[in-house]
Amino acid sequence: xxxxxxxxxxxxxxxxxxxxxxxxxxxxxxxxxxxxxxxxxxxxxxxxxxxxxxxxxxxxxxxxxxxxxxxxxxxxxxxxxxxxxxxxxxxxxxxxxxxxxxxxxxxxxxxxxxxxxxxxxxxxxxxxxxxxxxxxxxxxxxxxxxxxxxxxxxxxxxxxxxxxxxxxxxxxxxxxxxxxxxxxxxxxxxxxxxxxxxxxxxxxxxxxxxxxxxxxxxxxxxxxxxxxxxxxxxxxxxxxxxxxxxxxxxxxxxxxxxxxxxxxxxxxxxxxxxxxxxxxxxxxxxxxxxxxxxxxxxxxxxxxxxxxxxxxxxxx
Length: 316
What we know:
By secondary structure, the chain is α/β, with parallel strands linked by helices. The protein has one domain: Alpha-Beta Barrel (TIM Barrel), CATH 3.20.20. The protein has helices at 14-19, 24-35, 42-54, 67-78, 83-88, 106-112, 134-146, 158-162, 166-180, 197-209, 228-245, 260-274, 291-304, and strands at residues 56-59, 98-101, 120-123, 151-155, 184-188, 214-216, 250-252, 286-288. Strand 5, helix 10 and strand 6 form a beta-alpha-beta unit. Helix 10 packs parallel to helix 11 (228-245).
């Protein structure tokens, strides 16, 4: 993370939250206009793909995770591209934005990344459903921070959004933020389960008012994860929150982003809607596991003119 001023939050304003509306047809038109624009080519595309790597939370969240897999993932985070590709691209070094794991794998990841300034992010609060008891969820955050996690990806209680209980969501988010202490907190909205874009916008606002440093689309475990439409709604909430509060909140799309082309589309959206400042790891992250493989292949094609087989870039 960069040394940005953390989001201190604001008092909950129920009238503000209830006034939030999303013009769905306008969102669709804007997304379509962004998709229709000419994509980056050659060295410009390569530079954008390098930036995508720098903004990546390299992730493993599987039931069969082992310390060995996490250590290999951390080695990939320390050097996501082969030395010959780095040299050809004129890069002295390159690293991902973070490594994201379950609580049990925080300590091994911290050891593997020692001295490399790559933060460990832990998914927490009963991930992915978020339905365990509040005391359990808060204690999970505290234990992950004690183990060395510098970022905590929490999941909100979706029922609060569906029941329009904004006060309960605000109190929950404040409690999670307090439990994180100095660790940055990313609020996962699980947008695929929130039913409407209005709900997505309102949940984004409540989490930011309660002090979320990032808002994130998905756990990656829902039936529908990150989409351009949801992303547009969330980044415009971030823009409006900045105008109201003066605080910059980060954005993290996660789930289903597996191609370099998709990564470029999200980077373009961030540049268009929030500006170049949000194209940094301090304010933008991809939640990704397989995305890096396709980006590696695209960069190798840029350097050599040939596509390599995916297995040559296998992830742990």
